[in-house]
Design brief:
Blueprint lengths: L13 H14 L7 H14 L4 E5 L2 H12 L6 E5 L5 H8 L3 E5 L10 H11 L3 E7 L9 H10 L4 E4 L20 E5 L12 E5 L2 H10 L21 H32 L5 E2 L10 E5 L3 H13 L22 E2 L4 H9 E5 L6 H15 L2
Parallel strand pairs: 2-3, 2-4, 3-10, 4-5, 5-6
Antiparallel strand pairs: 1-7, 6-7, 8-9, 9-11
Helix pairs in contact: 1-8, 2-8, 3-4, 3-7, 8-11, 9-11
Length: about 375
């Protein structure tokens, strides 16, 4: 039986990109905010909302670093972040000189626990530089207004890590990208707007975008005078050209991917498998399912491997269980995080994953759950 890979990047026809490269080559501009990079940033902003600006970056991780450098209070030691996330977020905080304080997640949404954040801030807000709010697996957090209110109440910046969340929607139809002080997206090859490697930061306040544009270019002003500690985190012209092609194909790809998500939901939920609420309005690179027990998850994983189906266990171990963050502070015992992480299973999600393939995967899961 034909193997089903866990991840399969979907990039534009190489003939189209070859034509783009020929034009880039003729122009002689390969980076440093060329015509295609500017057009790509504008097109991303238009796809999000008419009132946001966008700065493209070399990766989502550098995007988080730039955003935290621009917005967080540099004289305060701590930043709040959920432990149930990819290591890039808390590592970016460390690179910026902040210590992550790990929050638990809500068992029913898998999103960061707002009550835990409030509990910490009531007693120690003076030491908190900002909040790095993760949209778990790129799924929109319908409590976003409560998070914005919390940040305002304590006078803190709210940076949103929506790495896998481009084109995801809240339950009321608003797309991600226009909330908090800014929002970061990944343009990694596995994401729906994959360019190979890259990132994007969106914000309603154009001053934030201008600040990040300066930081990603060595902190230079118009006269190439470095005004502050910056870095080189620019996106190239060829990556931007790929991004523009990806945006052209986005409506059709999004429709197909969400149809695959619906097939998964119809097949797995009757088996007692938990799927994240709101998943069907997202566009993640893989499907996250929570099995009844850790042992069941392991059995299903082995059965999938035997059947030629790729799988992983994002985000297991959670950040607070990883060596890089040994000794980091946390709010409470993070019991929901440990529980979900011990049972989570990541399944393939390709734009063109057939109904037969989804049925095949669900059949393997069913055989192990039912014994």
């Amino acid at each position: 039986m034909k193997p089903i890979p866990f991840l399969r990047p979907c990039l534009p026809d190489p003939k189209l990109v070859a034509r783009d490269y020929e034009e880039i080559f003729t122009s002689g501009v390969f980076t440093n905010g060329g015509a295609r990079e500017r057009a790509f940033a504008d097109a991303l902003a238009l796809r999000i909302a008419g009132d946001v600006g966008v700065s493209t970056t070399s990766s989502a991780t550098t995007g988080i670093q730039l955003a935290c450098r621009a917005l967080f209070a540099l004289d305060r030691p701590y930043a709040l972040i959920a432990s149930f996330t990819f290591a890039a977020g808390p590592l970016a905080l460390r690179w910026c000189g902040f210590e992550p304080v790990f929050l638990d997640i809500e068992r029913d949404t898998w999103q960061p626990d707002l009550d835990a954040a409030e509990q910490f801030l009531v007693h120690e807000s003076d030491g908190v530089a900002g909040i790095l709010l993760t949209n778990t697996f790129g799924t929109a957090n319908d409590s976003i207004e409560r998070w914005e209110d919390l940040a305002r109440r304590f006078g803190l910046p709210l940076v949103i890590d929506s790495a896998a969340g481009f084109a995801s929607e809240y339950s009321w139809g608003e797309v991600l990208g226009a909330r908090g002080d800014c929002e970061i997206f990944s343009l990694h090859a596995t994401k729906i707007i994959g360019v190979g490697e890259g990132g994007a930061i969106s914000a309603r306040d154009r001053a934030v975008i201008e600040h990040i544009d300066r930081l990603k270019n060595f902190g230079f002003d118009a006269a190439h005078n470095s005004l502050e500690v910056g870095t080189n985190a620019k996106l190239t012209e060829i990556a931007s050209a790929i991004g523009l092609r990806q945006l052209e194909a986005l409506p059709g790809r999004l429709m197909r991917r969400r149809e695959v998500l619906r097939r998964y939901a119809d097949s797995l939920r009757p088996l007692g498998v938990e799927l994240q609420p709101g998943m069907e309005r997202a566009a993640p690179p893989f499907v996250s399912a929570v099995l009844p027990t850790p042992g069941c998850r392991d059995l299903v994983g082995r059965a999938l491997e035997h059947a030629g189906v790729g799988w992983r266990t994002y985000y297991n171990p959670p950040a607070h269980r990883q060596q890089s963050f040994a000794g980091a502070r946390s709010v409470g015992d993070l019991s929901a995080t440990d529980d979900i992480a011990s049972r989570v299973l990541s399944l393939p999600l390709h734009d063109d994953l057939s109904s037969e393939s989804v049925a095949r995967i669900a059949g393997v899961v069913a055989s192990e759950i039912r014994g």
